């Protein structure tokens, strides 16, 4: 394993982290006696494998059901000084409730402190206010820090780049968990801002939200040769020194193996990546057109600026991925989450686009004339039964 300084925390962070949202027994809290022995054995084998390969950062959340409770049966068996343990608690209107949830996390983990506490989901103006207001959740987190129950405070986010940058600009956080990978590089401005504030940068779900790369389409496999799409994406992310760690949402001990192939390639990233990046760009241009590839995002409105709350940028992005790289399964999964994702994945689908007048909100787009047609076509291509977030399933 290789390690990077995790910003001003000065922690030596492994390039891969063990994310805790896929090996738990249930997404809901249940009594310990209900957790199956098979589930617990698998979780413990996964943690043991992580530690064996040098992945000593174990990341979970209060919202991950039984994850914390199950981790509490194995983490105390390790030398505490060897571990970097992170949990996350969602902002609350009542900051006392935020503290209560954190105390439950600590009790479940059976630890005296966590190294990293994230305010989980500063995604919009409301969660920003709940976090940052006087007497809010950040203030509670800082009190927990003063009591020795938390070493460093960060935030995780699925929000718009401007919200992430606004939160970073407060200079109140030591690190950030955010989305950024090859197919979605929109948050680079936030990563650059984090670098200026010497914050740690943790990339959320690069293999799942980054394209379901554990079951890639053949077209993407061919384009990423000689690497697998998963290793390509890992290498792309880690070739940027501003990125410190990638989350592996492991569901079994074997889930680390493909990722670990990236480590021996890092010194040759400047040699390996350019031909793959060129092929991917050429494929997008060949299927979508050069003008579209270079300008499609220009002048697009936010969902709150669009009739019906339609998330035009996300829908067109998913269309691009499905057409250029055959990432249709991924695009369908994300598209059908629209309308039920709340502030974690805001906006609506385009299933009623023929009833909406988009002329005003598209006035700044060079593609205003064709976008309504493309949205309707995308709905036919990707539309289906609505999907709930994993935590709601």
UniProtKB/TrEMBL annotation:
Residues 19-214 form the NADP-dependent oxidoreductase domain. GO terms for molecular function: oxidoreductase activity. It comes from Aliterella atlantica CENA595. This is Aldo/keto reductase.
